[in-house]
Amino acid sequence: MRDHSRSERRVSVAPEVWTGRARNRVQWLAALGGAAFLALGVQLAVDSTWTSGIAPLAMSVVGCIAAGLLVLFGTLAFVHVAVKVDKDSLEVRCGHIGLPRRRIPLSHVVGAEFEPSVTPRQWGGWGYRWRPDQGTAVIVRRGEGVVLILGDGRKFTVTVDDAESAVTAIRDRLKPPRRGSPV
Question: Of all residues in the chain, what percent carry a pLDDT higher than 90?
């Protein structure tokens, strides 16, 4: 009987759950702009010396508050993204409250690719994006990303730090096709 040393018995096993994040600090500037619009709306409502009537004042207050809230929450949703790959799915959660959220079962994924350079320009800006020729994406910053090829031919892209290890984790979890079944 042969005694195997520890180094011979080690097997390369992917972690049970892979997690990654990506951040965009520039989005905080846009969020500050939204907060400024919101503050302007409150200021107009509280300390108004408008002489032209209540309707223009109400429209200005509502417009500033609405624009401020849209910009504030729209940008805060994409300040960062968290990606989790477990044995069954890939989950993407955006912002501090995790919305919008997307969960893709790995049974719907046929491949994963590492993309070294994903830019907001390719997708038309930051955020949750859709382009008919490219698929769907969550873009929070420029840099590396993961591209999932789904079973129906669509693609899903997400920018995340250490995307190469995410692709490895996803590929390790994909079920190999059964022998005798069409690919």
Answer: 48
Enumerate residues 6+ apart whose C-beta is below 8 A from 136. Answer: 128, 129, 130, 154, 155, 156, 157
Strands 155-159 and 135-139: parallel
- In the predicted model, what is the mean pLDDT of the chain? 85
Closest Cα to residue 149, out of 104, 112, 106, 103?
A: 112
For the entire predicted model, the pTM comes to 0.73
**DSSP state string for 65-106:** HHHHHHHHHHHHTTSEEEEEE-SSEEEEEETTTT-SEEEEEG
* Backbone dihedral angles phi then psi of residue 114, each to the nearest 5 degrees: -90, 130
* Range 140-172 burial, b when 16+ CB lie within 10 A, else e: bbbbbbbbbebeeeebbbbbbbbbebbbbbbee
